[in-house]
Amino acid sequence: MTLSSRERGRLARTETLVAPNASGGRAARAPWSKVLPFLVALLSILAVTTLAQDDDVIRTSTENVVLNVTITDKNGQYVKGLKASDFKVYEDGVEVKPESVASFSLQESPYAAVVLLDSSGSMEARFTLARSAAIRFLDGLRQEDVAAVYRFDSKVERVQEFSGGRDLAPMAYAIRAKGMTSLNDAIVEASRTLAERTEHRKAIVILSDGMDTFSKASSDKAVETALAVGASIFAVDMSDLQVGGSAARQGAPQLKSFAEKTGGRFVATPGGQALRDAFAGIAEELGHQYTIAYRPLNKARDGKWRKLEVKLNREDLTVRTRKGYRAPKK
User: For 30, phi and psi rounded to 5 degrees?
Assistant: First the structure.
């Protein structure tokens, strides 16, 4: 524990602590040297506890595992009308028996989303486009849907609380791109925020060039926190396509990985009609997913990774869902 010069001066002037004596007269003096080690130990314990809490990954704690599953045909259209018997769920390669499935449904249910706007220096030439894209997404919200907006550069900051509003808060128009990129930390913060929401559909929408340069959290931790709250990541690559070479697109693989591991979608073309169509598709997808809840086969509370896979009895359809979950830990 490092003390300031002012604090050292106070300690130098404080030689003893005063406590009442048995006769009620002048207090007896207890040596400060006997109390100081206890206080130092207590502060150390509190510091370690705080760090451990900050480093914790959000883990599922419910009895059932919930999967939001997107089904598309060869033309990319969403498929309705499937039955529970059309699906097979596998956990660590072992099929989940029908009697372990607690619920199955196709709902046009509300969703909660967090939009993450990359406002780092590398986005300077593209931030106006990213802000316009965020507005496009908000404009696609249905009456029952809500979204919050965060910006991230060297820090993560909330721009807009959860609401059904169709425009950005005024402060969003004063943002200037600067600083480093803490993308992983932004995903962790978005996941923690979504953990407090009651909606069954949850999503994180990223508008970024994908080049993380400043996060404390790893990309693996970012994925785990999103999976733990059932959030799919929809990542839009805002790399400057007018700049040649691999440097312009070096963040794309990471953005794509986030989307694939969480059952979301990666959008490689950020401009023009393709961007508008992508956001319309994201909003539509979030409201049209099959939800499967089942009792896990492995009930061990060991904090280990469980691999998930969903298959259909129709080979002409494509399945997209999250790749696994982290088991609760004692």
Answer: -100, 130
Widest Cα–Cα separation across the chain: 91
- Residue 227, C-beta contacts closer than 8 angstroms, at least 6 positions apart: 261, 262, 322, 323, 324, 325, 326
Q: Do the beta carbons of residue 116 and residue 152 sit within 8 Å?
A: yes
CA 152, CA 214: separation in Å to the nearest integer? Answer: 10
Cα(235)–Cα(187) distance, integer angstroms: 11
C-alpha 273/C-alpha 5 separation (Å) is 61
Surface-to-core class of residue 172, CB atoms within 10 Å of its CB (0-12 exposed, 13-18 middle, 19+ buried): middle
First-to-final CA distance of the chain: 31
Domains and CATH numbers, the chain: 5-55 (no CATH), 65-107+290-326 (no CATH), 111-287 (3.40.50.410)
Tell me how far apart the alpha carbons of residues 23 and 327 are, in angstroms, rounded to a whole number.
60
Segment 220-278, tens digit of pLDDT: 999 999 998 989 999 988 886 555 444 455 788 999 999 999 999 998 865 666 777 77
DSSP secondary structure code for residue 190 in this structure: H
Instruction: Write the single-letter amino acid at 121.
Output: G
Please state whether beta strands 87-91 and 94-95 pair in parallel, antiparallel, or not at all (unpaired). antiparallel
Please give the pLDDT value at position 193.
97
* Three-state DSSP class for residue 226: helix
